[in-house]
Amino acid sequence: MTLLLPRRGLILATPALILSGCAQAQPSGGTPAQMEGPYYPRAIPDDADADLRQVAGLGQAAQGRPLLLAGQVRNLDGAALPGAVVEIWQADHAGIYLHPREGRLAQRDSGFQGYGRARADAAGRYAFRTIRPGQYPGRTPHIHLRAHPPAGGPPLTTQVYFPDEPLNARDGLLNRVAAPQRALLLARLSATDEGQRAEFDVLLP
């Protein structure tokens, strides 16, 4: 099936986005919480859809390696959570965030949205078109993610990491999480025709 994501607003991610990725066994327990960091948007951008590689009204595409970030939101019993809202925010290909406190904001890729959100479909699945983030100084490359339970209650804020990044071994926030729970923060990677796919399931308490 063809991947189709609207350009604007919340989306319903279809199960077809995930079918090409093989589910893998994961350690028990919920996805570890991680800090929000200093660069969560002060104001949600006008373009806040699930396609971060194209800003509405601009003809240029984002620089960097294309990435499809996709997964499923479930509870600790393994049941899917349809309607869960997932937000992501991240640095561009050069490691620069869209935020007024970002010291290199003038050098940021204006064709990269920087923030997006999606609503999980009937199977609890979500998907974002984004890029592989560049290295932010002092950190290993990562994507911030927040998942809101569909029935209300506190959201989970965490970070998505890439298992093939050499800087993971020195990242203080990642290594503060004890194994095997640390494995829940590592996306499962595979190649695509465009670039790369990262599977990241969210387990909400």
Automatic annotation (TrEMBL):
The keyword Signal applies. CDD domains: intradiol_dioxygenase. The keyword Isomerase does not apply. Residues 1-25 form the signal peptide. Residues 69-97 form the Intradiol ring-cleavage dioxygenases domain. It holds the Pfam family Dioxygenase_C. Keywords: Signal. It comes from the Bacteria. PANTHER family: DIOXYGENASE, DIOXYGENASE, PUTATIVE (AFU_ORTHOLOGUE AFUA_2G02910)-RELATED. This is Intradiol ring-cleavage dioxygenases domain-containing protein.
